[in-house]
Recover the amino acids of this structure.
């Protein structure tokens, strides 16, 4: 089973890119992993709700191009199911048993379009707090690494 992360936007900060690269490297010993960045739709200052929905749908077009019909998709969304690290590990193990590629989708600062949420088999939440989407990518990679350490009965600090 491989894991793909489909994320809206590019990481601009060097320190964040370095942290992401470190976790991608660490995860490489457990699972084939790729990150696909799709373009973030640029909104004007103080966008209307209609502008935001249009932007989310434009981003959804790019996201859908990165997802194959047979992929198992998990949307990372604030309204998703909150899971602990052990729960993430158990869920990934269960998905791995029946599916080839697991795709995690990370939206932009306005979230994800409903079309993406409906395409996803599941929605998971990192927190009830709102996080910049660049930080979500870093934090999610750390949690994936933690999950694979748990699945392989390896020590990981708490």
């Amino acid at each position: 089973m491989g894991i793909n992360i489909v994320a809206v936007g590019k990481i601009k900060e060097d320190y964040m890119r370095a942290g992401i690269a470190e976790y991608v490297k660490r995860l490489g010993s457990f699972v084939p992993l790729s990150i696909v960045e799709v373009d973030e739709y640029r909104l004007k200052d103080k966008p209307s709700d209609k502008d935001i929905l249009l932007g989310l749908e434009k981003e959804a077009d790019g996201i859908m191009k990165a997802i194959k019909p047979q992929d198992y998709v998990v949307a990372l969304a604030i309204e998703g199911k909150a899971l602990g690290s052990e729960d993430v590990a158990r869920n990934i193990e269960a998905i791995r048993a029946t599916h080839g590629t697991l795709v995690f989708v990370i939206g932009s600062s306005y979230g994800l379009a409903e079309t993406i949420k409906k395409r996803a088999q599941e929605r998971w939440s990192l927190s009830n707090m709102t996080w910049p989407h660049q930080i979500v990518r870093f934090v999610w990679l750390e949690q994936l690494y933690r999950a694979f350490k748990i699945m392989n009965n390896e020590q990981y600090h708490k």
